[in-house]
Amino acid sequence: MTTYKEAGVDVEAGEETVDRIRSSVQDTFTPGVLADIGAFGSLFEPDLEGMDAPVLVSSIDGVGTKLKVASRAGRYDTVGQDLVNHCVNDVAACGARPLYFLDYYGVGTLEPDTAEAVVGGFATACDENECALVGGEIAEMPDVYGEGDFDLVGTVVGLVDKGKIVTGEEVGPGDVLLGLPSTGIHTNGYTLARSVLFDAYTVNDYPSELGGRSVGEALLRVHRSYLRPIRSLVESGLAKGLAHITGGGLPNNLGRVVPEGSTAVVDYDAWDRPSIFSLIQELGDVPEADMRQTFNLGVGLVAVVRADDAADAVGQLKSIGESPIRIGRIEAAAESS
Q: What is the pLDDT of residues 298-320, one digit of tens each?
């Protein structure tokens, strides 16, 4: 006789995990949440007051191989925050406010302590973004995920009035690029970062270049949320375009909000790169082009504003504790022959 547990799936561990996370999940509930965790579907009643044409905005993403760093370090309380903040930034860049978040947590062997830390990270970030954690899936699949392996995927749904969607359609020559600092690598480029750094260091090593942080601490710094500065710019009508700098770096992500006929010109000397990027480039002899196409290089969000509005935008961002940097401009694209 073979039981489900002997086959590799521990139902009791799953029930224990749900019991552990219940209170932290419930703490994220906003007035729109109509069902507790455990229901077959998550119910949410949005507040549409004051909206002329409400539009739902959704995004789905993962944390990538940053999970491998978490496993090496034995630290799981940050990757859940990374996932929520990444997804929130994506819908916020369209002008939306996040309403609710759902997650998928797939694992080879379910460890309630680890799951509690991961979901605790979801709850922390959802609370900070005023976004409800309304449900999720914890899947224990030993035939899919190896020992110690796990995967995270998240979906966020937000809401924006149709007339206030930030599309970048009106971006054009003469506009200014304002960058907001990242907290480090965020959630993209970890395959390259791990390949380079773990050839030379362990997660517990303290390279002098990292200013007192271990390799693990530097790599696991939380992908920050830009919701507050984005809302500040959107509500004041100062943002013509917003780019969340994720995979593809500044070139690819700016290309998503700059219309045909224009191009973004970035001055990469306008800011000091965080030391983690310099260390990766020097250790791995990584070409500058690869660095720019892989990492955010210290700028996690770019707002495109009118030249005449640049001073106001900088002042507004500074008033809420941000440190915006003028990193470039929009020019007319060169005509191809």
A: 999 999 999 999 999 999 999 99
Beta strands in 274-324 (DSSP E): 299-305
Q: Is 259 left (phi over 0), alpha (psi -120 to 50) or beta?
A: beta
The secondary element (H helix, E strand) that includes residue 164 is none
Q: Which CATH fold would you assign to the domain 176-332?
A: Phosphoribosyl-aminoimidazole Synthetase; Chain A, domain 2 (3.90.650)
CA nearest neighbour of 13 among 102, 122, 140, 135:
140
Q: 146 — phi, psi (to 5°)?
A: -75, 175
H-run or E-run covering 305: strand 299-305
CATH architecture of 4-164: 2-Layer Sandwich (3.30)
Structure tokens at 251: 């070139």
| pLDDT of amino acid 116 | 94
Instruction: Name residue 266's amino acid.
Output: V
Kindly report the pTM of this predicted structure.
0.95
How many Å separate Cα 93 from the centre of its chain?
11
Which DSSP letter does residue 44 get? B
For residue 258, the Cα-to-chain-centroid distance in whole angstroms is: 21
Q: Where are the domains of the chain?
A: 4-164, 176-332
Q: Helix 79-92 vs helix 66-73: angle between axes, to the nearest 10 degrees?
A: 160
The CA–CA distances, whole Å, from 213 to 121, 132, 284 equal 21, 32, 20
Written as one string, the DSSP assignment of 165-225 is ----TT--TT-EEEEEE-SSSTTS-HHHHHHHHTTT--TT---GGGTT--HHHHHT-----
Question: Tell me, what's the pLDDT at 337?
Answer: 47
Task: Give Cα 299 to chain centroid, integer Å.
Answer: 13
Residues of the chain with pLDDT under 70: 1, 4, 6-7, 335-337
